Amino acid sequence: MRCTARVRALLRSRLAEDPPRGRAAEKEIRTLKLALEQSPAAVVITGLDGTIKYVNTAFQELTGYSSREAVGSNIRRFKSGQQGQAFYQDLWQTILGGKVWRGRFHNRKKNGELFWEKAIIAPVFDERGRITCFVAMKEDVTELMRAEQDLQAAKLDAESAAQAKSAFLANMSHELRTPLNAVLGFIHLLQDTGLTAQQQDYLDKAAVSARHLHTAISDILDFSRIEAGRVELETVPFDLRESLDKVSGLLAHWAAEKGLRLSCDLDSELPPLLLGDPQRLGQVLLNLGDNAVKFTEAGAVTFTARLLERAQGRARLRFEVRDTGIGMTEAELGSLFQPFNQADQSSTRRYGGTGLGLAISRRLARLMGGELEVASRAGQGSTFALVLTLQEAIPERTGRRRSKPVPGTTPLRGRTVLLVEDDKLNLQVAREILRRAGAGVGLAGNGREALERLGQQSFDAVVMDLQMPVMGGLEAARRIRQEPRWAALPILALTADAVAGVRRKVLAAGMNEVIAKPIDPALLVHTLSGLILEVMGAAARQAGQIPGVDLPGTLARLELDADTFLRLLRRFAADQAAELAALRAALAQGDGPGAMRVAHSLKGAALNLGANAIGAAARELEEVLGGGAAWQEPLARLEERLGELLEGLALTPAAPEAPAAAADWPAILAALAVLRQALREDDAKAGHDLTTLAALLKGGPLQGALAPMKARIESYDYGRALELFPAFEARVDQARQT
Hints:
Elements: H1 3-17, H2 19-38, E1 42-46, E2 52-55, H3 57-63, H4 67-70, H5 85-96, E3 101-108, E4 114-125, E5 131-140, H6 142-191, H7 197-227, E6 236-239, H8 240-257, E7 261-266, E8 273-276, H9 278-294, E9 300-311, E10 314-323, H10 330-334, H11 345-351, H12 357-367, E11 371-376, E12 382-392, E13 416-420, H13 424-436, E14 440-444, H14 447-456, E15 461-465, H15 473-481, E16 491-495, H16 502-508, E17 513-516, H17 521-543, H18 551-558, H19 562-588, H20 592-608, H21 612-627, H22 632-651, H23 665-680, H24 686-697, H25 707-714, H26 718-737
Parallel strand pairs: 7-9, 13-14, 13-15, 15-16, 16-17
Antiparallel strand pairs: 1-2, 1-5, 3-4, 4-5, 6-8, 8-12, 9-10, 10-12, 11-12
């Protein structure tokens, strides 16, 4: 039954039953009809099949159809054909299910014009809960849709422009930093060659100019990225004291050259670990410190860090950089943070700089949720402060941090590094830096060549550029990580693209860390050696905790991988079990001197392999035997320590023996002869000759056998190393025969 017919029938029934009440109902219905007719929204009532029963005036004005033309026709006549069948199926499924539908129609007017309307369609129920018809209220939103489309188009244009600007910045960064890396790199390498005083003077001035150029390029690119909104902040755990030490370390040399005192005053209550972006925090503090040193001719520069407040896992911190420099007037302070501006324009000529450092620092501070403050008086110095709130980080359960190179050693001695770089000048610079740090260096010109080299030779780490022809660094890293045998191989990225998101992409591809060009030689060597030691320590921890053995420390000292070391330790334990039986027999026969020799030999071998508990017990037994005291209890303790070692090794899974690459015996014998001659002549180049020999033996059965002689050479005990030489040569001859 039609909705309007039902309403009229109901009205007649009410009039017959109760005339006054019926007239009131009739008046109410007329009021409702007038409201519908005069409503600014278009109203449509349809049957269950979509046949139109009623339209109001607003509907007629919107569509151009009169009530006579619309009523009786199906609502489908208004379709534009721009919305698919699925759209209408969802609509009908909703309203026939007794629910309200909300959405937008793209319909067609009588004159053919397309328009958009926002609609709400609701079912109407009778007293038995059955749907009798549908009522729709509609509003013309054509202009709104056009505005939204224009806004979306403008947004896409803006995004496209931002992407183009970002790509331009990335390309410019690469094009500027790549040659600058070569310039700074060769200057660094030249510093270590024999130069006359005049040449050294010229080189020092070239280095200063190159560093100024690097700073200017970095400032301009950083400011452009910030202006374009392309700076992305990291949120990673970091050691605050370590970050502050790094900043002060970078400024220490320059401050010393100017005769300034550089000091750090750190609050003892500072949280050990925080969550944030250590690189950007360091950049702000380094900018402030750099300015302090630059504008101070005499006196001191002081860094302070204070904990202001600590609550709910968050720490509010205040960093200050104070100097005794030239200071600023009130007028100069007013324009201090404006880009391309220095407080006194004559300062640009006197001190140099782009005038962007403080503008960049303030914007980075605000991106991190902090603020920069400044207090200064002309002629009395300045104090810059960064106030920042950071989340405290929960330390790892193991308390481990990134391993650092052992002090006093050549960081990469005995390591082999695959260097992947397509630019020949940068390749030469990086290769020489690594070689001078003691590493053996393999070369590849792109990612595909790197994969081939890794398949042919074992390397301790990979140093790889990101932008290369054929296959770039990111894709190469992803493919390396797909191979289980290279899952833990350290990969250090080098990039001239100092733009937002590079580090995130590097880590996502499976690389361990990234260094921006121009390369800081010390940072490259320190980072790479730390990554290698970290992998060695992880391998040791994976191998298990063996009672009485210092695994991480011994691996770092002997520069062995965990599997090779454990094979040596198993061999030692098996040999010493037999030696202890002989020692007990000698003591039973009263052969004290013979027992002392065994104990002395056992002590030295144990301590060399990091079996400190056995070494200490053997030392005690040796001392007891030398003094003529009772030896039974010390011997029992030594046997107990050895039993603990054997038990620990039994619980530690042994790695399968990897097939060794074919040994290059002519090269090994030649390197052996060169090393022997250097030892005989007490020549310091024996260390370099040892590195050459170790690289030839890497991964083979003789790598572990070289360890005792290697330890003597590295401690410059060339005489003792020569004594060990015949035994090692015998092992070489034995290996050649197998």
